[in-house]
Design a protein that fits this description.
The protein is α+β, with helices and mostly antiparallel strands. It has 7 helices and 23 strands. The strands form 6 sheets. Strands 12, 15, 16, 17, 18, 19, 20 and 22 form an 8-stranded antiparallel β-sheet that branches. The chain has a 4-stranded antiparallel β-sheet with strand order 2-3-4-9, with no helix packed on it. A 4-stranded antiparallel β-sheet has the order 5-6-7-8, with no helix packed on it. The two termini are 40 Å apart. It has 2 domains: 107 residues, Rieske Iron-sulfur Protein; 251 residues, Alpha-Beta Complex (Naphthalene 1,2-dioxygenase Alpha Subunit, Chain A, domain 1), CATH 3.90.380.
């Protein structure tokens, strides 16, 4: 890969090919419980600084951050009168960016009708605030079942990582790193037994998914671990699609969105959905691991190498804020990484041709759910058992 292609994949600001492609999709911008009526705040997404607020009716606004009147930051305003009121002269803007009140202007003046904040449409599903930051009419929101199902429980968490989002997406179809980076013994305790051996694995891709299935020796003869991970543009990683609605064998969905803050920072939104089984919770208790001192140290940053998150942070940030892919030497074990890049580049090239990228669905019916039919991660199966692991989307 040359530097031109690297830039094409990684630059997310307005007007950049990757940035314009990302703006074709509904994207996660915040957790719902972090957007409060008394706390308007500035966030940064896709290299844009934006004002995020919730009005007194519960609606979420995502707008440009400065008042068009005299340029004061609306972060210091008050949520009232159906929108956000600027602290300087009291102009009020609703969640659509319309100016709805202008104290000091003559009664009956239509001046406010000429003032508009740039505002992005928002939705709330699965405890996450989503925004459409594109130029065209927003597509229907894709109602993934793990976001909208009511027959279970969700857990949410997230973190900021100081590197480009492609540093993280490259990692998702790299099963060999799981053994080397995540399979280390800690005080004699194997952190993850199904990652104890370097796997044999298959990779496959179509115009919507890139995925792998890794096979490792199981805990007894005749058994093996299967672990699958899938990527679909623009930023969704599916570790497990979970069980579909109505399946009595309830198992959880595990997904992550690698949302670009800007070219050099990424915020990950992690969601797990646990369907009820016989009316009871299926949430697994967290595994407690020993916590010795970090096993590795960077020159500037210390990472907790006893956790998967800390290990990945060290490896990904250690590549540089944007990895220098022109200097890489990719081998046979990197073929999943190559598929991720090809799929993302194909989405960008579709947009450059004036087409919609893969995964933008405009024919969704009202209340239709989408289920990712993806073989779960960490499944113990009979050795040599043939499993149809082609990822697909099922409409429910």
């Amino acid at each position: 890969m040359d530097q031109t292609e690297n830039d094409l994949m990684t630059r997310v600001g307005p007007g950049m090919p990757a940035g314009e492609t990302l703006r074709c999709y509904w994207l996660p911008v915040s957790f719902s419980d972090e957007v409060k009526t008394d706390e308007p705040k500035i966030i940064r997404r896709l290299a844009e600084d934006l004002l995020l607020f919730r009005d007194q009716f519960g609606r979420v606004g995502l707008t440009e951050p400065n008042c068009p009147h005299r340029g004061t930051s609306l972060e210091y305003g008050w949520v009232e009168a159906g929108g956000i009121r600027c602290c300087y002269h009291g102009w009020v803007y609703d969640v659509n960016g319309s100016c709805i009140e202008q104290p000091g202007e003559p009664t009956g003046s239509n001046f406010k009708d000429k003032i508009k904040l740039k505002a992005y449409p928002t939705r709330e599903h699965g405890g996450i605030v989503w925004a459409y930051m594109g130029r065209s009419e927003p597509p229907p929101f894709p109602r993934y079942d793990f976001l909208v199902r009511q027959d279970g429980e969700r857990t949410l968490n997230g973190y900021l990582r100081e590197c480009n989002f492609m540093n993280q997406l490259d990692n998702c179809l790299d099963p060999v790193h799981a053994t080397i980076l995540h399979g280390r013994d800690v005080n004699g305790v194997r952190q993850n037994p199904e990652r104890a051996e370097t796997p044999e694995f298959e990779v496959l891709a179509d115009n919507l998914f890139a995925s792998y299935v890794a096979r490792r020796q199981g805990p007894e003869p005749g058994k093996e671990w299967h672990r699958e991970v899938s990527y679909t543009p623009p930023i969704l990683v599916i570790h497990d699609g979970g069980s579909p609605p109505g399946d009595p064998n309830a198992y959880f969905a595990d997904v992550a969105w690698r949302m670009p803050v800007d070219d050099y920072n990424t915020y990950s939104f992690i969601l797990k959905f646990y369907p009820f089984k016989d009316g009871q919770s299926t949430i697994r208790p967290a595994r407690n691991s020993p916590k010795p001192p970090p096993l590795m140290r960077g020159t500037q940053v210390k990472f907790d190498m006893t956790t998967v998150n800390g290990q990945d942070a060290a490896a990904q940030i250690g590549q540089g804020r944007i990895a220098n892919r022109a200097a890489e030497h990719l081998g046979y074990s990197d073929r999943g990484v190559i598929l991720v890049r090809r799929l993302w580049l194909s989405a960008i090239q579709a947009v450059l041709r004036g087409e919609e990228p893969p995964g933008v669905l405009r024919d969704l019916k009202e209340n239709e759910m989408l289920h990712f039919d993806v073989v779960g991660s960490g499944r113990l199966v009979n050795k040599g058992e043939m499993v149809d692991h082609r990822p697909r989307i099922t409409r429910v």
